[in-house]
Amino acid sequence: MTTSPTPVPSPPTPAHELPAPGPGWTPACVVFDCDGILMDTEANWAQVQRLVSESYGLEYTEALERRMMGWSAADVATAIAEAAQADRATVYADVLRTEEETLRGQIVPLPGALETVRAFAERLPVAVASNSTSTILGVKLEQAGFVPHLSTWVSSEDVPHGKPAPDIYAEAVRRLGFTPGQALAVEDSVVGATSAVAAGLVVVAVPSVPDGDPVPAHHRAAALTDPAFRELMTRWLG
């Protein structure tokens, strides 16, 4: 196995240090990413990419794993199909099947995730914006216990283009009834934060790979349980 999938082109990443909004700014709604922010499924998604890549005779390297973090199933399938000269629809079906199989019994909320979402939801409308497919996203949110606290959720199948395009975040904010400038996004990856920034949201980065590429954001924290993040919540929620 010597060939790797060709990365799907993505928009240029903004400078990772963005000016924070003025001290009087507070969010009118909050949109959370799912994988790597609310639940520990990034390892499962990497395993899906590895299994499908190798099933088509492709090499799956650590560098490629980092590059593909946050990609939608559609983009992963396209990259693998192009590299392996395989039928894209067949590869996509294999990605979805493998993802469903690897997720069984593996959906675990990250520390502080349920408490954080619940705290915001008690004061503000909350949504989830994810590159997962609609069915997989619903399963994740239901099994992890987030559904009762959410006003809506948006998958990559609900919009023309997944992250890093702005569509998913723009649609989530639209459904909540606000403008992007009134919304807060909580993201862990470059792909996801690029999407939120492009849509016009204020972004808090909580990187799932601390030594990875810098995640563009207006604020940043090490985890949802980080005192820095809790300080921001206190400022915004009182």
Fold and architecture overview:
- This protein is α/β, with parallel strands linked by helices and 238 residues long.
- It has 2 domains: 142 residues, Rossmann fold (3-Layer(aba) Sandwich); 62 residues.
- It is built from 9 helices and 6 strands.
- The protein has a 6-stranded parallel beta sheet with strand order 3-2-1-4-5-6, with helices on both faces.
- Helix 1 crosses helix 4 and helix 3 crosses helix 4.
- The longest helix is centred in the middle third of the chain and has 16 residues.
- About 3% of the residues have low confidence.
Given the C-alpha coordinates, what overall shape results? globular
Biggest β-sheet strands, sense, barrel? 6 strands, parallel
Q: Please tally the helical runs, counting DSSP H or I stretches of 4 or more residues.
A: 9
How many beta-strand runs?
A: 6
Number of domains: 2
Question: What's a concise summary of this model?
Answer:
The protein is of the alpha/beta class and 238 residues long. It is 42% helix and 9% strand.
Topology readout:
Blueprint: E1 29-32, H1 42-55, H2 62-67, H3 73-84, H4 88-103, H5 113-121, E2 126-129, H6 134-144, E3 152-154, H7 167-176, E4 183-187, H8 190-199, E5 202-205, E6 219-220, H9 227-237
Parallel strand pairs: 1-2, 1-4, 2-3, 4-5, 5-6
